[in-house]
Amino acid sequence: xxxxxxxxxxxxxxxxxxxxxTKIEQSLYHxxxxxGACWVDHDSRAALIHRRLAVxxxxxxxxxxxxxxxxxxxxxxxxxxxxxxxxxxxxxxxxTPFRGHSDTEAILESCAAIxxxxxxxxxxxxxxxxLWDIQDRRLWLVxxxxxxxxxxxxxxxxxxxxxxxELKALRVHDQCPNSVDLAATSGFMRHNYIAGTRxxxxxxxxxxxxxxxxxxxxxxxxxxxxxxxxKDTFTLNHSTKAIKSDDDAIAKLENLLxxxxxRRMIADVPLGAFLSGGIDSSLIAALMQxxxxxxxxxxxxxxxxxxxxxxxxxxxxxxxxxxxxTELYVTGQDALDVIPKLPDMFDEPFADSSQIPTYLLSxxxxxxxxxxxxxxxxxxxxxxxxxxxxxxxINSQLGKIPSPVRKLLARTITSFSPDxxxxxxxxxxxxxxxxxxxxxxxxxxxxxxxxxxxxFRSLVSHWENPDDVVIGGKEPKGALWDExxxxxxxxxxxxxxxxxxxxYLTDDILTKVxxxxxxxxxxxxxxxxxxxxxxxxxxxxxxxxxxxxxGKWILRQILEKYVPRHLFDRPKMGFGxxxxxxxxxxxxxxxxxxxxxxxxxxxxxLRREPVMKKWQQHVSADANWQYHIWDVLMLHAWxxxxx
Length: 643
Fold this sequence. Notes:
This protein is of the alpha+beta class and 643 residues long. The strands form 3 sheets. A 6-stranded antiparallel beta sheet has the order 2-3-1-9-8-10. Strands 4-5-6-7-11-12 form a 6-stranded antiparallel beta sheet. A 5-stranded parallel beta sheet has the order 15-14-13-16-17, with helices on both faces.
């Protein structure tokens, strides 16, 4: 795992190129503390930059940027590809002998021999890489199928193309745009992350997962084309149902997961696993332990508050599996100490509060190992989220009400403002008064008026109408508004899984895991997101994912072969912190500083009145607006640091 960056130019930057490249390299030091280098070629006007976290082939022969044996191509690469031997086998037997055994060299020489797209389609793993053709002055940027590894880019007015693993690397360059994208800001207020290809900066983009960008200075704009498409995977596979029986599906998936885990245990450094005690992480740890004679190292953290603490469950699973388990109970102060680091950790507004425990877990794990396997992706691929069941229940109930009646009810509800509904609710005794009454009433009205997809979108939204709070905001309509989905993926559960995988998984979960782990130089690997597992999951009929009111049915059947059911069969817990009480207690002074009139005026991003209304309701415990407030606080904390 590493950090990459670079730029190609027509007009040289104001600061000497080597100096810019060195500053960029240092900005990514945390992603690759083992070594770093810059490759600058003034003749072809290109600079490639790399920071290395050495995991496979620790010798200098694995260092980057790396030039091909023929001398024509240079690569800088972030990630791990687990089918190196297959790539090499396909090369000409007359190929120059390899200098080392890194996957970097295999990707580079395969690209030189058969081309970028043909090589990329063969890769199994997580990757983001840049390849420069010195002879033709052509750049390729490639991002893995599910967006596990990040890649940002911009083409400046001066015709300089800049790219990097993190936005901080792009910002070092004097030509990088720095105007705030207010549309992206509105999207952030809905989701708590910036979805799709936008970033917080206008004209700075994320390369979409499963895509290849190619550019040469004689092109007006870069060409972007997919080599793999998540929507097609759900569309095609969900319509073919190749699985005939439960036993057949269980056997095939178990074999796939064994292979995915085996490949991700390839490392020349110490390796372990995150273990929460839930289904996904327990299954990954169990499969790892079957492949090792010595105990696998597993890691978990615990919290003082029972509703946020899974450590005891992880310890029980670890004891049963016989892993070498390490746990750390963290105090509220440990968690609060992370908050000042968040603007630099994420580079743009990011408000999933589980970023805090995820960083603490990564920091603990890095003290013992360099690589950790994670269970991320199981919920999206195998139907594990409670919101899937909630959305189906709501739509089932709404379907019993005739459409004209639903619309009349919606009009009646919205004829009263949220404030009015809140006032009505205060007529009730406090112990029977619903919280957030006005917001819930208007959400219900939106559901009554809408389609099943509207119901799902409402369930995953924070600020329901973000343009009302973002000054000049015009929310972009991304995957959650895709009107083609109903015809392409007619099954509602599959459609929700696709929407989560295309947005929440890539732009929240994987962003969070990448930044928190790499901030301390830890490589996190995700076996469930082997694209072969994702493609297989899309072929499964719903009853193999959801059965008897429980999600992840097929994963439960596999896990029960290794872990007794009573150790994992319990209600799902989120990996969170007691944010609601912190905002009323130890975080209140910090929050009120970020919510001051001066801060709103200085940053000029949000209207203060709707925010402060929610804040007053929250601190008085009349409502719980923890997630809405956290969105605002993370936006202002980022703006204070970076604007």
